[in-house]
Amino acid sequence: MEFPGVASIGGFAKSVSMKLAFRSFSVLIVLASCSFLVYKLCTFQQYEVLFIQWKQMPLSRLWWLAGLLFLLPLNWFLEALKWKFLTSPVQKINITTSIKSVLSGVSTGFFTPNRVGELVGRIAFLEPENRKAGITLSLVNSLTQNVVMACCGILACILFLSVTAGGLQPDMFYFISILMVGVLVLGAVYFTLPRWSLQFKLTRLSVKLKGFTDCLSGYNLRNLLQIILVSFLRYGIFCTQLYFMLRFFHVELTPWQALIAIPTTYLFVTFTPSLAFSEAAVRSSYAVLVVGAFSPQVVNIALAGVCIWTVNVVVPMLAGSVLIIGKKS
């Protein structure tokens, strides 16, 4: 004989077990991220150079740093606003919860390739029944930002190569062409996501995957354009931040040089497989390669790359670590 309460108790136990496993996995990622961060800080070899730079720096240059720090909360506010827009068809969250979700995602993505672990932190602040949709929406969020960075970066890269190398070489032309086709395909996929979702509902797989795909049918063209616009605004913010950091370290660039060098740098960084904790080295090397074409101040450029990573990744990661560990499941 089966008692009615047994099934519900079993379901409750399973739910609690899944919550504990999810929380344990999140905390494990955060602890691993913090450990590698400490390692990177302890093994950093240019503290002496950095100290000399700070010691010899005129106070007037602090305005560039002040401008950069002023843009920091705006940068992550825009990302939180975008996440709020993305999740609205599934679950209405306020901007405070969205900020917590985004910062937690930075923390959990710190230790994973190309920050794919961000979705763990982001969906932690959604209701359990909405977390499957949250995974899909997190991927869509990354898609929008990457499409924007690719669109702007490809144009800047073409101009950069035209100025520094006299034009596109055949191998680079093929690479850029393939990248442009890929961006166009991704853009087309993004703007037709609601249609694809509705078509998918007619297939047999929809029963098993509806938790992941049904969320996409709640958007219209206006919503998708709104999300892309926020992505463009955020892209402009962190490009400006890098320019401010370069000027803070007395790297002389004309506005035109910055306009083609900075998006090109971010293009290379975006499409280079890496872990977030290793991005400092990746960003610095690309900054030296690209920005160095217009300035001989290699050490200053490298330090700017490290410091912009510290401001835009490490600081939010530490804040997110506190939020994800302190969250009650």
Strand-residue fraction?
Answer: under 5%
Quick one: biggest sheet? Answer: none
Assign a percent range to the helix content: over 70%
Helix run count: 13
> Span from first to last CA?
34 Å
Judging from the principal axes of the Cα atoms, what is the shape? globular
Average pLDDT confidence is 80
Q: Structural class of the secondary structure composition?
A: mainly alpha
From the alpha carbons, calculate the radius of gyration and give it in angstroms.
Answer: 22 Å
Helix and strand element order: HHHHHHHHHHHHH
Number of strands: 0
| Number of spatially distinct domains | 1
Unreliable spans: none
How does this structure look, described?
- This protein has 329 residues and is mainly alpha-helical.
- The protein has one domain (4-326).
- It contains 13 helices and no strands.
- The protein has helices at residues 4-42, 47-55, 62-87, 95-109, 118-123, 131-164, 170-191, 193-200, 206-213, 221-248, 255-270, 279-291, 298-326.
- Helix 3 packs antiparallel against helix 10.
- The model has no long low-confidence stretch (mean pLDDT 80).
